[in-house]
Amino acid sequence: MDHVGEIRVGTSGWHFPEWRGDFYPRGLQQRLELGFLAERLDTVEVNGSFYGLRRPTDYKSWFERTPDDFVLSVKGHREVTHAKRLADVGEDLARFYDSGVLELGHKLGPVLWQLPPGLPWRPGRLAAFLDLLPGPPVRHVLEIRHPTWDNPELVEMLTERGVALCAAESAGRFPEPREVTADFVYARLHGDQELYASAYSDAALDRWAERVREWARTRDVYVYFDNTMRGAAPHNALALIERLR
After folding, report:
1. DSSP string spanning 217-241?
2. What is the pLDDT of residues 35-82, one digit of tens each?
3. What are the DSSP E strand ranges found in 19-67?
4. Residue 175 lies in a domain
5. Where are its TM segments located (predicted)?
6. Contact (CB, 8 A) for 144 and 116
7. Is 141 a domain residue?
8. Can you give the CATH number for the domain in which 100 is found?
9. How many domains does the chain have?
């Protein structure tokens, strides 16, 4: 069956020394790396926004340096998820969105909120956080890391609000939920053998290609390879795209 949804496959971030002279040709200027990646993949996940608020000029620059049909998903600021642990974050969320995220316009993909491994299930706190998130056209994703979050009540809360539960693979370190809770699926592949580092085998890529095809029968799918540490991510992304053609 042909898929109904749009499939996009990319990487988590694009500035990595390990990629230079490997995925990126030797001598390619750093400011040209995003453009080089965007000629080969159709999406990327902005990770720097997790570590510090960016400026509107950054987002405008990324918009201008990528093709018209390119999509940039954005990782939410750690002040919200890790410092404040989702509590009383109204002003922090406003600052994050005001930092330029919406400058991406039609190229803005889902916004990812990755929770810290040390935060146990807090339904009241989560509900208050979800109620603060801007509505459409912005899409949101929650990535859980504490085992107590892997529960039916979470699935119900996210489904009610159309927020995606991230389908993460983390070499068994964190929960790896597969429930679909929104009109799109968002998968982060951190490595199936070694977190952030191991390359995906042909068999593993075949397995993911099958999953993605199944999801795409009814909804859009975003897949990001976060096994960036030894440079496997862009090569794995291209190999998955090849399988999905």
Report:
1. TTSEEEEEE--TTTTHHHHHHHHHH
2. 999 999 999 999 999 999 999 999 999 999 999 999 999 999 999 999
3. 43-46
4. yes
5. none
6. no
7. yes
8. 3.20.20.410
9. 1
The token pair that represents 30 in the structure block: 């750093």
Containing 210, the helix (H) or strand (E) segment is: helix 202-215
**Tokens of residue 179, six digits:** 């429930």
- Which residue's entry shows tokens 């053998």? 193
Judge if pTM exceeds 0.90. Answer: yes
How is the beta sheet containing 220-225 ordered, strand by strand?
164-165, 140-143, 108-114, 71-75, 43-46, 7-12, 220-225, 184-189, 167-169
Q: 10 Å Cβ neighbour count for 236?
A: 24
pLDDT (tens digit per residue) in 174-230:
999 999 999 999 999 999 999 999 999 999 999 999 999 999 999 999 999 999 999
Is residue 2 domain-resident? no
